[in-house]
């Protein structure tokens, strides 16, 4: 099968097939199967410790999978002699040698991959670090290191790009810039795979989402499909006759939880229906509001069962 | 494979490593200063002989040439500083890359880890061969020129003199490779340096070589090999290390260090 894929036109997809990584007794990544496609930004979402970084490291051949496979354009990345022209990656902005200048760092990497010197200046311009190119990386802020990491990823003009938590340490202007850059890279037909533990970062960035929790695939769908999932749409209703309304709504099939002396939180029933029922039974209302679950809420709900480290969790 | 040619040859990796080493200012300083220190120690030894020349007894002065003269060409202190400084620099070059996480960036750029490590070893060994050659040559000619003021300078044509210079020069690439091999295994700056210094300096110094079978253990260390090679006497009785044995010890340590680095680099960072 792999033989056949080589003869086809090379499609720069990242293919995970039952990818698994175990460390001693713990399973960091558990049978992950999905395909990351070109031409769009794919968000890689999951709570802290879900196995995002481990997965990305396996894509890059830095960690060997315990079982399963991961290929980029049909080939195992670790078997390539040089990497920069195939996959550009920013795993951790701190993965640099502080003693080198930005130019020295990029030039050494470029030279090993036979990338011309002129490319170093181009990527530094792209990320806005031209003026500090000669300065030691050790003195860079996290945001500057993040930009340098992005420059490193762009160095080989690769068809596939991986970014692990690229928004960390960026100011709002930087976040906007990165979003624009990712969109442009995807529009150029590249495969862009961006991890994050914050749904809000993905809302205006990704078109497609791969969501994992405790190493397992939870969702692999478009952002639109994902937000449509947002079950748990809540209706908040305030009335002096809370007990009577609660009975009426419950009888009509809603789940009602009192959230104050006069306030009820209703799920499983639309705002309009709650209003109709109140009118029908002549219950005076003081407030009726719908709280459509945000993407963040949808994400939290989906991954709640798989959160590795909960605040207040007894360990 | 055609992609190998367009994406980068082995020489490109050598160039890449050279750019890296050259750009690390602290390493450049360490290399320069340690080289200067070794030269100063040897020239200083010769100058001490010069200053104290007439304090030495008649018999000392008469028997000075060539064995005591050659001691100043590369002193034991200079050997120790070379081992210490160069193995530490070799260890730092590799361990700092692991310690900072830079190694992940490097491996993502060059997934062929063993080829990459081969390039690192070759560039560093070449650099320290040049370093060793300069340091040993300057030390030899400088010290022997000073001693020639008292007509006890050893010429390079003297039997064994070239061997002393060669063996002293080769201390450096050997130490660098041992440091790099241990750092690839241990991946931590401090522990790699301790391990390198322990193996190159401490262990042979602690072994009492006058005792039976321990002589054979002592013979297996590069420090012992250098002692033998930097001595002008042509033969020593077994079980002490002979000249071919001493060269063999150096060759074996070099091979093992290279093998250690190329095998240990396969372990995931």
From TrEMBL, chain B:
The keyword Membrane applies. It comes from the Bacteria. Keywords: Membrane, Transmembrane, Transmembrane helix. The chain crosses the membrane at residues 27-47, 73-95, 116-141, 161-182, 189-207, 245-265. This is ABC transporter permease.
């Amino acid at each position: 099968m792999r033989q056949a894929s080589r003869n086809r036109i090379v499609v720069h997809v990242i293919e995970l097939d039952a990818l698994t990584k175990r460390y001693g007794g713990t399973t960091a990544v558990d049978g992950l199967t999905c395909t990351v496609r070109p031409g769009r930004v794919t968000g890689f979402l999951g709570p802290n410790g879900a196995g995002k970084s481990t997965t990305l490291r396996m894509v890059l051949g830095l960690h060997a999978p315990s079982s399963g496979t991961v290929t980029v354009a049909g080939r195992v990345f670790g078997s390539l002699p040089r990497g920069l022209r195939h996959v550009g990656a920013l795993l951790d902005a701190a993965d640099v040698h502080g003693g080198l200048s930005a130019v020295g760092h990029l030039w050494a990497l470029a030279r090993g991959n036979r990338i011309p010197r002129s490319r170093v200046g181009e990527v530094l311009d792209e990320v806005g670090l031209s003026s500090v190119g000669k300065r030691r990386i050790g003195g860079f802020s996290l945001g500057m290191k993040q930009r340098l990491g992005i420059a490193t990823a762009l160095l080989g003009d690769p068809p596939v790009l991986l970014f692990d938590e690229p928004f960390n340490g960026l100011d709002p202007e930087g976040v906007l810039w990165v979003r624009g850059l990712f969109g442009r890279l995807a529009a150029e037909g590249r495969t862009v795979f961006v991890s994050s533990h914050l749904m809000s970062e993905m809302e205006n960035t990704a078109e497609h989402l791969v969501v994992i929790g405790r190493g397992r695939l939870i969702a692999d769908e478009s952002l639109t499909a994902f937000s449509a999932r947002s079950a748990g749409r809540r209706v908040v209703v305030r009335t002096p006759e809370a007990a009577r309304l609660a009975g009426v709504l419950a009888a009509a099939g809603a789940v009602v939880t009192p959230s104050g002396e006069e306030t009820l939180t209703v799920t499983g029933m639309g705002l309009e229906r709650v209003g109709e029922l109140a009118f029908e039974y002549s219950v005076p209302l003081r407030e009726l509001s719908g709280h459509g679950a945000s993407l963040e809420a949808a994400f939290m709900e989906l991954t709640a069962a798989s959160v590795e480290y909960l605040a207040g969790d007894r360990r | 494979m055609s992609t190998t040619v367009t994406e980068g040859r082995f020489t490109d990796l050598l160039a890449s490593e050279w750019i890296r080493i050259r750009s690390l200012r602290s390493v450049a300083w360490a290399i320069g200063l340690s080289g200067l220190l070794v030269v100063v120690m040897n020239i200083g030894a010769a100058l001490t002989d010069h200053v104290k020349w007439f304090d030495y007894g008649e018999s000392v002065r008469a028997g000075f040439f060539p064995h005591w003269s050659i001691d100043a060409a590369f002193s034991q202190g200079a050997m120790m500083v070379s081992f210490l400084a160069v193995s530490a620099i070799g260890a730092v070059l590799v361990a700092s890359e692991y310690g900072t996480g830079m190694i992940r960036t490097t491996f993502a750029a060059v997934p062929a880890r063993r080829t990459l490590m081969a390039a690192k070893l070759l560039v560093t060994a070449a650099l320290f061969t040049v370093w060793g050659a300069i340091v040993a040559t300057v030390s030899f000619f400088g010290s022997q020129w000073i001693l020639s003021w008292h007509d006890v300078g050893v010429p390079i044509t003297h039997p064994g003199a070239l061997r002393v210079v060669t063996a002293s020069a080769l201390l450096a690439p050997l130490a660098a490779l041992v440091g790099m091999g241990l750092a690839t295994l241990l991946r931590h700056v401090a522990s790699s340096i301790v391990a390198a210094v322990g193996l190159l300096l401490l262990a042979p110094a602690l072994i009492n070589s006058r005792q039976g079978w321990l002589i054979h253990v002592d013979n297996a260390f590069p420090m012992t090999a250098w002692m033998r090679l930097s001595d002008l006497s042509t033969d020593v009785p077994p079980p002490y290390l002979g000249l071919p044995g001493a060269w063999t010890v150096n060759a074996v340590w070099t091979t093992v260090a290279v093998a250690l680095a190329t095998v240990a680099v396969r372990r995931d960072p």
